[in-house]
Design a protein that fits this description.
The protein is of the alpha+beta class. Helix content is 18%, strand content 25%. The chain contains 1 helix and 4 strands. It has a 4-stranded antiparallel beta sheet, with no helix packed on it. A hairpin with a 4-residue loop joins β2 and β3 (55-61). It starts with a helix and ends with a strand.
Length: 88
């Protein structure tokens, strides 16, 4: 019985301390589909902010996609995965 109470307390406290994160591009992409400032690309990384608006880290692909739409080195693809960098 004590074990169930401890598990319940841990579950409740973990839910209370679980924060929300906001993920949004650094700048708006005024020409979507052109491959230059696509969200998550090298030039326009996603910014991860906590519930207080403080930047926690970034999400971006490391290799610039010079030929957008060909399927090679697209941001988030197998050949150019997203990398999460935190400010720790």
């Amino acid at each position: 019985m004590k074990i169930l109470i401890i598990i319940a307390i841990l579950a409740i406290t973990s839910m209370c301390f679980a924060g929300e994160y906001i993920i949004q591009p650094t700048i708006p992409d005024i020409n979507p589909g052109d491959g230059l400032f696509e969200p998550g690309s090298t030039f326009n990384p996603y910014i991860i902010s906590d519930e207080y608006g403080q930047e926690v880290g970034t999400i971006q692909a490391d290799i610039p996609d010079i030929s957008h739409g060909d399927g090679l080195f697209e941001p988030g693809s197998f050949s150019n995965p997203y990398i999460i960098r935190t400010n720790d």
